[in-house]
Amino acid sequence: MVSSQQELQRIALAEFAIAGYTGTSIQRIAELAGLSKSSVLYHFTSKEALLEAAVSPAIDRLDELLSDLEAGGLGADYRATFIGQFVDFIFDCRQEVHLFINQGPSLVGLAVIDRANGTVRRLAHYFADSTSNPHDKMRFGIALGGSAYMLCTADNFEMPLESDDETRQALVAIMSELLAPVRAD
């Protein structure tokens, strides 16, 4: 039986990521948590409130990461810091990122998802606006979106990854290459 709101959020987030938000019911979350439906609703007034509580910390963290990027710019010094922080973010928030990537477009209208979509769009625009050529825009999109998608869906596709340390090092190295400015020769 679940003993805290935080554990209930963790269970709900896992179920939202696996079964989808629309495919998950409060009753199912209650069953997984070993609680009654009324106990879940005592802590969270609705499924949307539970989703908001579960994903808001990740949105806040991504928003802060993006604000730091906007302040620090894409110079070599800050770029390395950003890449490390972004990889840490997608590692720490795999289920939330999975939800944003795979369900964000279909859940438009839910306030917390609209907020997540806005933050992701802001990140995409930042990188798209930092270059004028389509080649770099594609590299930036592949670096950010591809790394997030690969890491967050590996479990669903039963694609075993190396250890977290090895995978993190590989992602940082690949993203560093993809996000490095291209020199015109």
Automatic annotation (TrEMBL):
Domain HTH tetR-type: 2-62
DNA-binding region: 25-44
Keywords, alphabetical: DNA-binding, Transcription, Transcription regulation
InterPro entries from the UniProt entry: Homeodomain-like_sf, HTH-type_TetR-like_transc_reg, HTH_TetR
Name of this protein: TetR family transcriptional regulator
GO MF annotation list: DNA-binding transcription factor activity; transcription cis-regulatory region binding
Top-rank lineage group of the source organism: Bacteria
A matching Pfam family: TetR_N
